[in-house]
Specification:
Number of strands: 12
Low-confidence stretches: none
Radius of gyration: 17 Å
Shape: globular
Strand content: 35-45%
Number of helices: 4
Distance between the termini: 32 Å
Order of helices and strands: EEEEEHEEEHEEEHEH
Strand order of the largest sheet: 1-2-5-4-3-6
Helix content: 10-25%
């Protein structure tokens, strides 16, 4: 489980395809603290450390993960947002994030307003998925590339988020521009409520 508070935007240093799997090697500052089998969120996708060196570690994404996320679009040199799993004795600064990406969305607009930036993301509307809780609500939470954010201007097929300068600089949001594909995880509480309502009729 994660909170959506990114620790580091780390650089991809190697990508190796093996059948349907992608072995992703990332260079980060806290690699010496990692252990094999540890879970880390990569752009919001929970992956397991399978090997490490002095300054980098490797995780493996299976085909289903590549189909539902933007990890298959990564290139060497790109930055990924990293977060280690949440400590249960700490504060939940973001919201409850599982690290299970639901789908991707595309950035359609970035605009600067009073020192912060507003990003608009869109995705194809699917009525059935919306009934199952795959939607946003005004002032609710959404995870974009592993970052916990507050929704504004929520629509059936998209939403906006406001990103403060700190988040813009210290996550890979500074690489996002119109046309960029991002990972989305919708709020798990909304999914549970939608499922419960299904059985009340």
């Amino acid at each position: 489980m994660f909170s959506g508070i990114v620790e580091e935007a780390a650089r991809v240093v190697a990508l190796n395809k093996e059948n349907g799997n992608l072995h992703l090697t990332v260079q980060c500052s806290f690699v010496h603290e990692l252990k094999i089998d540890q879970s880390i969120s990569h752009n919001g996708v929970c992956l397991t450390v399978v090997s490490k060196t002095d300054d980098a570690y490797t995780v493996t994404a299976i085909q289903e993960t590549l189909d539902k996320s933007n990890l298959g679009l990564l290139k060497i040199g790109d930055k990924v947002n990293l977060e280690r799993s949440m400590l249960m004795n700490g504060r939940l600064d973001g919201h409850i994030v599982q690290g299970h990406v639901d789908q991707t969305a595309t950035c359609v607009e970035v605009r600067e307003v009073d020192g912060s930036r507003y990003f608009r993301f869109e995705y194809p509307f699917d009525k059935q998925k919306a009934k199952e809780g795959y939607f946003t609500v005004e002032k609710g939470s959404v995870t974009v590339n592993g970052v916990s954010l507050t929704v504004c201007n929520s629509k059936d097929d998209g939403f906006e988020v406001a990103v403060i300068p700190y988040t813009y600089e210290y996550t890979n949001f500074h690489q996002i521009q119109p046309g960029t594909v991002v990972n989305l995880e919708f709020d798990i509480i909304g999914k549970y409520i939608s499922r419960m309502m299904k059985y009340e009729h």
